[in-house]
Amino acid sequence: MPLTGRTHQIRAHASAIGTPIVGDGKYGGVNAHPGGEIPRKLHLHARSIDIAHPDGGRLFIEAELPPHMKTSWKLLGFDERDAEDAFAGLEE
Questions:
Q1: 82 band by pLDDT with thresholds 50, 70 and 90
Q2: Does some domain include residue 81?
Q3: Quick check: helix, strand or coil at residue 75?
Q4: In the chain, how many domains are there?
Q5: CA 34, CA 9: separation in Å to the nearest integer?
Q6: 3-state secondary structure of 71
Q7: How far apart are CA 65 and CA 75, in angstroms?
Q8: pLDDT above 60 (res 43)
Q9: Which one, of 78, 1, 12, 85, lies nearest residue 45 by Cα?
Q10: What is the reported pLDDT for 5?
């Protein structure tokens, strides 16, 4: 769960440690495509951003999952409306 970083850095580092991002054929190769019904599109998404606003206060924006990721989340049993960490409680 990266807190910051540019897309290519996150993708390259995830692949380097043996956990490529789903759908990332450029950096993850065949290991990034688990097969089955999981779409072969990149599964990298900023669900929300929370930054300081120059005029004071905070700017908080949320974005829906793209359609291909909604499909994958449903297949994997995740609830896209759940604001909590989808991976909380899972063992490494």
A1: confident
A2: no
A3: helix
A4: 1
A5: 22
A6: helix
A7: 14
A8: yes
A9: 1
A10: 61
In this structure, what token pair is assigned to residue 31? 């290991």
Per-residue DSSP letter, 31? G
Residue 47 lies in a domain: yes
In order of 27, 46, 69, 72, 76, the CA distances from 17 in angstroms are 11, 21, 23, 23, 23
Helix (H/G/I), strand (E/B), else coil: 18:
coil
Residue 57 belongs to a domain: yes
Q: Report the largest interatomic distance among the alpha carbons of the chain, rounded to a whole angstrom.
A: 48
The values of phi and psi at residue 90, to 5°, are -85, 140
Is 87 a domain residue?
no
Q: In 3-state terms, what secondary structure has residue 50?
A: strand
Instruction: Identify the domain containing residue 45 by its residue range.
Output: 7-76
